[in-house]
From TrEMBL:
InterPro entries tied to this protein: NTF2-like_dom_sf, YchJ-like_M
Annotated ranges, domain YchJ-like middle NTF2-like: 15-112
Native species: Lentisphaera araneosa HTCC2155
Gene3D superfamilies: 3.10.450.50
Residues annotated as transmembrane: none
Protein name (database record): YchJ-like middle NTF2-like domain-containing protein
């Protein structure tokens, strides 16, 4: 997780996977500002900060596994990353599986949406 500190400090991830991993680390480290800064405006809602802070209180993130990726390299403008995140909540272990869509806006990758 120390490797993501450069991204949390302001350096832009070069790939969609790097962004996804750095966002996971931001959940672990409870860095709400980074999570808000790296999501596309189409996801922005008036209660985003509060909802993320509530997630921090409820979940302890334990492990991340990247399952697949499609595009999302330096030269791409879009990419997909499928991952499995394990977390604890009220003494129980849960898994969150998601296929995420990322878009590059200028030099910055942003979390855009969940692919159904």
């Amino acid at each position: 997780m120390n490797c993501c500190g450069v991204y949390h400090g302001g350096v832009f991830p070069e790939t969609a996977e790097q962004l996804m991993r750095s966002r996971y680390c931001a959940f672990v480290k409870q860095n709400v500002d980074y999570l808000l800064r790296t999501q596309h405006q189409n996801l922005s809602g008036p209660n985003d900060r509060q909802e993320i802070l509530e997630t921090f209180q409820a979940c302890q993130w334990l492990e991340l596994k990247v399952l697949s990726k499609n595009k999302g390299e330096k030269q791409d403008s879009e990419g997909e990353v499928e991952f499995l995140a394990t977390y604890a909540n009220e003494g129980q272990i849960f898994e969150h599986r998601e296929k995420s869509h990322f878009k590059k806006m200028g030099p910055q990758w942003l979390y855009h949406s969940i692919i159904e």
